Amino acid sequence: MKATCEQLLDYFNGTLTEHEKVQFEAHLESCEECREELKELEELTGDLPYLSIPEEPPAGMKERVLASVFEDDREETNLNHAEMNDLTNQNKVTDLQSERKSRQRKWVAPALAAALFLSLAGNVYNYMNESNPEQTQEIASLIKAVQLQPSEAEASGGSAALMNENGRMNLIVQVNDVADVDGDQVYQVWLLEGDTPYRAGSFTPNQQGNGEVTYEVDYEGEHKWDAVAITLEPDDSSETPKGKVVLSSGL
Amino acid sequence: MRELNDADLYVKVQAKDKEALSLLYDRYEKLLYSFSYRIVKDGGLAEEIMQEVFIKLWKGKAQYSDDKGKFSSWLLTMTRHTAIDVLRRQSKEPDFELDERDSLHSDEDSVEDQVVWKERGQVLRTAVSKLKDEQQKIIEMFYFKGMTHKKISEEFDLPLGTVKGRIRLALKHLKTSLGEKGGVSDESNL
Ligand SMILES: [Zn+2]
User: Fold this and answer.
1) Cβ pair A251, A241 in contact under 8 A
2) Is Protein biosynthesis included in the keywords of this UniProt record (chain A) (predicted)?
3) CATH of domain B1-95
4) How far apart are CA A158 and CA A118, in angstroms?
5) What average pLDDT does the segment B115-137 reach?
6) B180 vs chain A: nearest CA distance in angstroms?
7) Which CATH code, of 2.60.40.1640, 1.10.10.10, 3.40.50.1450, 3.90.180.10, is assigned to B110-190?
8) For residue A250, what pLDDT band results from cuts at 50, 70 and 90?
9) How far is Cα A250 from Cα A192, in angstroms, rounded to an integer?
10) How many CB atoms neighbour CB B141 within 10 A?
């Protein structure tokens, strides 16, 4: 089905397929009418949740819900395929399956990053020794890799890579010789689309001034990332950069 | 120490702070549960929705950012989408019934922080009850049941091209009616 203005209602209700959703979001970029109608729908329905009669939550629901959230999280770390199939057979887990996979992938990323940076930077890091070689058997493709340039003539450096791992995009950033942080300060990674920054992970460096972070880039809609930049932020909650750019590169 | 706002807590949740998730849960349990219940009309399913919503939050599967508006609005939308999804997975046609309680004033006891909700709810329910049955029904089917554009056109025997207009009209009438009550529209993003 072609993305047209007629899909607005289904988009608003979240009933489009993933593919249709992506297409419709692309359509939204170019269709002002749909953008306005969507905004109007959001405004007109903003109060409707409060139509709900206050219900008394069932006893013990908090414990059950949180236990299942954390339990689910723990299971993933050592999930094999048999277990995964088992879980799928239980009710309602169907769309969690893909999430499980993506979580596993995050474990894999450091190893991939290490392999990548070995070839990129030519410097020998010993990350490979720290990672489990079994975890490297994932399908991944490199979209773009760049060397990060320091803003001032500093000794720091680093690399960034956008990788496609089974349909998910990860940004892997690794830096060396950056200054230590104070208090809640963190180094925040940003992906820039034009002038708009998108948060893309944060990290604090170790005592040697090295740091790394892998971030799953999952912003809705189509994006063309123009640059990657790292700033020093007062804490890990900055929605837009407050500190100066420490390292950056075009993409 | 100042109380952390929702966005602060969300950031902490992304950093796998269990305490932050627990706080967010406490803040929203009753609203999200009641909203889910309003959609699926079943306590067990409503709890299932709660579970999915908090798994999504914990895993960062649903990403919030400032440009998506208020956290509470985003969370309610995410909950509604999850509930609609659960309804669809039930595979049976969603039973449609006008929620007769919508036209009643609920006098259930309400803890202090739910007073605002209760007041808004009453104003809203009064406004809804003034709409024509068909307008109530179309809002119910579209917003609370997540019925597709095509389904609505079949159900109401409307050409596809006029469905959107009907929904807008119903929602606008509701808004007008709320305005007359000196209602809650100025807080609609709360
Ligand atoms: Zn359009």
Assistant:
1) no
2) no
3) 1.10.1740.10
4) 12
5) 90
6) 15
7) 1.10.10.10
8) confident
9) 9
10) 19
CB nearest to A96's CB, from B55, B89, B128: B55
Region A61-250: CATH code: 2.60.40
Is residue A68 a contact partner of residue B55, using CB atoms and an 8 Å limit? yes
Tell me the residue ranges of DSSP E strands in A151-205.
Answer: 157-165, 168-176, 186-193, 196-203
Closest-approach residue (CA) in chain A for B90: A92
Residues 6 or more apart whose Cβ sits within 8 Å of residue A71: none
In angstroms, what CA-CA distances link A220 with A19, A107, A142, A217, B77?
12, 23, 21, 9, 15
The per-residue pLDDT for range B28-69, each reduced to its tens digit, is 999 999 999 999 999 999 999 999 999 999 998 888 988 888
Write b or e for each residue in B160-177: b if 16 or more Cβ atoms lie within 10 A of its Cβ, otherwise e: eeebbebbeebbebbbeb
- Under 8 Å CB pairs connecting chains A and B tally to 166
Interface contact flag, B54 A51, Cβ < 8 Å: no
Q: Please work out, in degrees rounded to the nearest 5, the angle formed at the alpha carbon of residue A202 by the alpha carbons of A108 and B66.
A: 115
CB contact under 8 A, B11 and A41: no
Contact B146 A62 (CB under 8 A): no
| DSSP sequence for A86-141 | HHHHSTT-GGGHHHHHHHHHHHHHHHHHHHHHHHHH-----HHHHS-GGGG-S-EE
- The mean pLDDT value for B70-96 works out to 85
User: For residue B29, what is the nearest residue in chain A, using CA coordinates?
Assistant: A57
Q: Are A147 and A249 in contact (CB under 8 A)?
A: yes
**Which residues have a Cβ under 8 Å from the Cβ of B157 and sit 6 or more positions away?**
none
* Interface touch B34/A199, C-beta < 8 Å: no
DSSP secondary structure letter of residue A31: -
Within chain A, all domains assigned CATH 2.60.40 are found at: 61-250
Dihedral over Cα of A117, A123, A129, A133: its sign:
positive
Chain A CA closest to residue B68: A220
Are the Cβ atoms of B33 and A61 closer than 8 angstroms? yes
What ipTM was reported for this prediction?
Answer: 0.85
Return the domain boundaries, chain B. 1-95, 110-190
Chain A residues with CB inside 8 Å of B105's CB? Answer: none
Residue type for A207, please?
Q
Nearest CA distance, A165 vs chain B (angstrom): 16
